[in-house]
């Protein structure tokens, strides 16, 4: 099946004071129609830069190398008006802070109606009805009342439900959710993840779910891509990668995941060492200074992504020895 979105050898470079900063390095990734891909990484992994590149929203001055192909378009070659048109219809986003999606001075209802502006065939009353039904689908009680409220009258969780509903009303072919549950408490997060999971049935398109929390991936995603310091280290089907990670970094992320630690511990394990700064010189495997499994070639040869299963790849010398 032809991928909906295809990233080939993508690098993202920001101009720096002394030298350019390479935030993403040679990432190649496909997203198949209908699938949910989890993009996992700590802060500084380049996941938000990649999302911005997919949306054509990189800040002025940032340079993108490689190719971002969406359906039949090369995103890196599109002019701003066309990108804006795409972002209003074919590609929708859910942000970490739902306030960014909602206008504080407009009632929820008029915003939900406005989000359907390209449905020229629908009357305002029909759009209002669709919006009300959508609010019900995303789990808001008393949607008729919500439609008449302002964003500040809703809790953070309810606002995020509205933002998800708004994104779904657009019937996007690609939905990009950037840490949509990070600002929420655990109970609300679980509810929002359940809604995202149900939304998959509603949505005919694909979803990219960006998170720093690998446990979230197992709850909503079909495939996962693990980023580290701007590089793609492992990608494959969620069930396989999470139960039997091939890359030591993926393993370490899972070992630090509070959801997987059965015994209550006073301090959570963390990965020793720090993520290299984007401009720090690299030799060999970028994870080698922190890797407990490092051996012979690790500090001198950069491992390429190698197949370790069906549509499963890991950039680690252990896979090829
Ligand atoms: Fe560790 Fe070597 Fe694999 Fe890098 S290539 S993750 S240093 S074992
Ligand atoms: Mg981010």
From TrEMBL:
Its main location: membrane. The keyword Transport applies. Residues 5-254 form the ABC transporter domain. The keyword Flavoprotein does not apply. One of its GO terms (biological process) is transmembrane transport. GO terms for molecular function: ATP binding; ATP hydrolysis activity. It is found in: Cell inner membrane. GO terms for cellular component: plasma membrane. It comes from the Bacteria. It is a peripheral membrane protein. Keywords: ATP-binding, Cell inner membrane, Cell membrane, Membrane, Nucleotide-binding, Translocase, Transport. InterPro entries: AAA+_ATPase (IPR003593), ABC_Ni/Peptide_Import (IPR050388), ABC_transporter-like_ATP-bd (IPR003439), Oligopep_ABC_C (IPR013563), P-loop_NTPase (IPR027417). SUPFAM superfamilies: P-loop containing nucleoside triphosphate hydrolases. Belongs to the ABC transporter superfamily. This is Peptide/nickel transport system ATP-binding protein. It comes from Martelella radicis. The lineage of its organism: Bacteria, Pseudomonadati, Pseudomonadota, Alphaproteobacteria, Hyphomicrobiales.
């Amino acid at each position: 099946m032809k991928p909906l979105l295809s990233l080939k050898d993508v690098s993202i470079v920001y101009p720096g004071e002394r030298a350019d900063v390479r935030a993403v390095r040679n990432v190649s990734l496909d997203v198949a129609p209908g699938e949910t891909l989890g993009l996992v990484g700590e802060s500084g992994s380049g996941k938000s830069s990649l999302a911005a590149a997919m949306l054509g929203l990189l800040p002025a001055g940032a340079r993108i190398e490689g190719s971002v192909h969406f359906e039949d378009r090369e995103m890196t070659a599109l002019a701003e008006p066309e990108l804006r048109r795409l972002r209003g219809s074919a590609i929708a986003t859910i942000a970490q802070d739902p306030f960014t999606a909602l206008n504080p001075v407009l009632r929820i209802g008029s915003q939900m109606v406005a989000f359907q502006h390209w449905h020229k065939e629908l009357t305002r009353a029909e759009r209002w009805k669709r919006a009300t039904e959508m609010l019900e689908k995303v789990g808001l009680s008393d949607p008729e009342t919500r439609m008449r409220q302002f964003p500040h009258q809703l809790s953070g969780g309810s606002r995020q439900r509205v933002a998800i509903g708004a994104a779904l009303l657009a019937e996007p072919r690609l939905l990009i959710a950037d840490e949509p549950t990070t600002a929420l408490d655990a109970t609300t997060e679980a509810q929002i993840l359940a809604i995202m999971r149900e939304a998959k049935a509603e949505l005919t398109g694909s979803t990219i779910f960006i998170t720093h929390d690998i446990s979230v991936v197992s709850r909503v995603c079909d495939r996962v891509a693990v980023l580290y310091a701007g590089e793609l280290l492992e990608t494959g089907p969620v069930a396989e990668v999470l139960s039997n990670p091939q890359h030591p970094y993926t393993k370490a992320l899972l070992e630090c995941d509070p959801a997987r630690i059965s015994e209550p511990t006073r301090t959570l394990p963390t990965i020793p060492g720090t993520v290299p700064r984007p401009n720090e010189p690299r030799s060999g495997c970028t994870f080698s200074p922190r890797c407990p499994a490092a051996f012979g070639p690790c500090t001198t040869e950069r491992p390429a992504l190698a197949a370790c299963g069906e549509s499963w790849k890991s950039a680690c010398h252990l896979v090829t020895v």
